[in-house]
Amino acid sequence: MSRRLISSGSPFEATIGYSRAVVQGDFCFVAGCTGYDPDTRIMPDDAAEQARNAFRVIAATLDEAGFAMADVVRATYYVTDIAWWHAIVPVLAETFGEIRPAATGLIVSGFVAPEMKVEIEVTAMRASAG
What we know:
CATH class: Alpha Beta
Radius of gyration: 14 Å
Strand content: 25-35%
Structural class: alpha+beta
Number of domains: 1
Number of helices: 3
Mean pLDDT: 93
Strand order of the largest sheet: 1-2-3-6-4-5
Low-confidence stretches: none
């Protein structure tokens, strides 16, 4: 079974030892994506905008790997404060309202940079594999 690594281009991937995503067979495992704007590399203060940015990165990563957001079967959401849950729920509904992947409700966690409020990771399976 082939294994394909998808890179974000970040120098941290080699330093830390991770990939933006790994495609293994019919699955794509996307690493946690935070809320930095993928074009400007600026982190918005708003948790909902951070979630939207994370989903933009996830969608682009899945596309590069040959998958679509509709292929997402699992999602995990991390926030630094439980208060951000209510801010990101509408973004989750916008993104996954029809897809409805299995999901961990929410994990409250610390992140490496204080401006980070949201991190989202997903697993996708090719629709043709199901």
